[in-house]
User: What shape does this take?
Amino acid sequence: NMISLNSHDMDYSPLLYKDGIVFTSTRVFETKKRKWFKSYKKKFSYLFFAKRDKRGQFINPKPLEGAINGRYHEGAATFNKEGNVMFFTRNNKKGKNQFGKIDLKVYTAKFNNGNWDETEEIKIINGDGFSTCHPTISSDGTKLFFASNRNGGYGGMDIYVSYLFDGEWQYPVNLGPEINTDGNEIFPFIADGNTLYFSS
Assistant: This one.
């Protein structure tokens, strides 16, 4: 048990990053401005970073600095090879859509002067009325995989890929029936050597 990382709440989607680890958690934490709302009936998830000490242990998890952790859900991040661009999951701005459902979208952020800022929605892969989430990027930075429950899939959540062409992400492609089923395929992770891991 990674006691130094885990809390009484949900802690998931760990990803090694530089000299530490980034993960998603629903724990309560305090910022310079306010304490996050434990009184909420539904806890929200946020992104944390824990540095590795000289003994190789992860210590003192803290919320990512900058314009990342907002009022609603943030989580399931991935990073480009250089570590200066993050792709992450975020709620739509109102938290829920017109039907009262929580929709998720994929955003990017850039690392500047110790903070994550310049957050931007990847509009070509997102949409209103369905969720796009759990991004993972290939080591060469040209393929972005994610899960979505948009129309035209094989089941609930399917895994899709968007290709980078001339500096722009392209319209997503479903990975097809060899990967996707009539159930839910979620949390993809593309490893070095182009091996895809996912939950189903």
Confidence is low (pLDDT under 50) at residues 37-41. The radius of gyration is 17 Å.
